[in-house]
């Protein structure tokens, strides 16, 4: 059974960077779509970024374009989220998610389409 374990969260000041990691136990299968979501206190979970299984193409939520980068290392069974120029509005619990079968890009934002979730890692950005 696939399990996702996130790490790398912490407390930083505005303008600083963090890199989140998500280890996929059992390995990253070539069919897995891997995404990052986040949920701020009192708000709904929102899509951050996705990386497709074969081409490695990526898509981002508008507010993170140019600041965040999603990547993966199949040899390390890991997915990463490099976050630069962090702002207080980026404060949230960040979750790694996996979709095991095909996912059309129009559904990438829908958390219900994902099969496996990690436990989350807290990112706090102070002004």
Q: What is the oligomer described by this structure?
A: single chain
Task: Provide the gyration radius in Å.
Answer: 13 Å
Count of strand segments: 11
Structural class call reads mainly beta
Helix content: under 10%
Summarize the biggest pleated sheet: 7 strands, mixed
Please state the overall shape, judged from the principal axes of the Cα atoms.
globular
Number of helical stretches of at least 4 residues: 0
Task: State the end-to-end distance.
Answer: 40 Å
Mean pLDDT rating: 94
Spans of at least 5 consecutive residues with low confidence: none
- SSE topology string: EEEEEEEEEEE
What proportion of the residues form beta strands (DSSP E)?
over 45%
Report on this model:
This protein has 127 residues and is mostly beta strands. The protein is 0% helix and 48% strand. It contains no helices and 11 strands. The strands form 2 sheets. Strands 2, 4, 5, 6, 9, 10 and 11 form a 7-stranded mixed sheet that branches. Strand 7 and strand 8 form a beta hairpin. The mean pLDDT is 94.
Write out key terms for the chains shown.
four-stranded antiparallel β-sheet; mainly beta; 0% helix
Summarize the structure.
This protein is an all-beta fold and 127 residues long. The protein has no helices and eleven strands. The strands form two sheets. Strands 2, 4, 5, 6, 9, 10 and 11 form a seven-stranded mixed β-sheet that branches.
């Amino acid at each position: 059974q696939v399990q996702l374990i996130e790490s790398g969260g912490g407390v930083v000041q505005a303008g600083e960077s963090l890199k989140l990691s998500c280890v996929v136990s059992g390995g990253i299968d070539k069919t897995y779509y891997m995404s990052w979501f986040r949920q701020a206190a009192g708000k709904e979970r929102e899509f951050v970024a996705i990386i497709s299984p074969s081409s490695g193409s990526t898509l981002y939520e508008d507010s993170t374009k140019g600041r965040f980068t999603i990547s993966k290392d199949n040899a390390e069974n890991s997915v990463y989220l490099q976050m630069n120029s962090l702002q207080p509005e980026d404060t949230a619990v960040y979750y790694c998610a996996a979709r095991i079968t095909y996912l059309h890009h129009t559904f990438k934002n829908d958390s219900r389409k994902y099969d496996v979730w990690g436990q989350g890692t807290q990112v706090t950005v102070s002004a």
